[in-house]
Amino acid sequence: MDLRAALRTLLTLGKGTTQGLPPLTADRDPIELFGEQFAAATACGVLLAESAALATVGADGKPSARMVLLKGYDRDGFVFFTNYDSRKARDMQANPQVALLFHWASLQRQVRIEGTVAQISREESEAYFRTRPRGSQVGAWASEQSAKLENREVLEKKAREIERRYAGGDVPLPPFWGGYRLAPAQIEFWQGRIDRLHDRILFVRTESGWRSSRLYP
Fold it and tell me: Which pLDDT score is estimated for 6?
């Protein structure tokens, strides 16, 4: 975080800002608005602006949340990656309805996204996997994500074995690892304002496009 962003955080945190969300117009696109806000968070030095809390509900009806990293977005949805045997993946298999929450504290902004997830193609996962550092590629093979681990030495030994297996060559994409795309059904933008008179704009997808409305804070 740069000095300007740090000062903004100290001066406004908990107090709200004077600048709110843009006025509603019939042609406003929430994906474009997300792009503007994501770019602003990145530009002002927010640490890991791409991090978001992913909330799922398993087959047992119990909710669960964890942080994931956004690796791409467009009009089709928001993409993140994980082990297909992890708890989050099992939850999404049982119930594809999920929520994704971005929180950029220094800007006093939140974006809430709700919708349905589906696995992306293996070709898309392969393309992203090739961009990962080699250590992260090895780690994807070594980790039985969410399974019980006897001790850390077991994990580190598996990582060394994987590294030896693929020494001198590329690490292939594991068959149990890849991406999901969250197709948004609704997107809500939240902006902190003075005296807690916050701005909230909700976009809901309809058959003809997006319908927007303002909400009480």
Answer: 53
Domain assignment of residue 99, given as a range: 3-214
As a whole-number percent, the residues of the chain with pLDDT over 90 amount to: 85
Return the CATH number at 60.
2.30.110.10
**Nearest-angstrom CA–CA distance, 52 and 71:** 11
- Please confirm, yes or no, whether 196 is among the known catalytic residues: yes
**Selected catalytic residue, list 165, 196, 211, 214:** 196
List helix spans (H) across 120-190. 122-129, 134-142, 152-165
Cβ pair 100, 65 in contact under 8 A? no
Confidence at residue 14, expressed as pLDDT on a 0 to 100 scale:
44
* Cα–Cα distance for residue pair 201/31, rounded to 1 Å: 13
Provide the β-strand partners of residue 142.
Answer: none
Number of folded domains that form the chain: 1
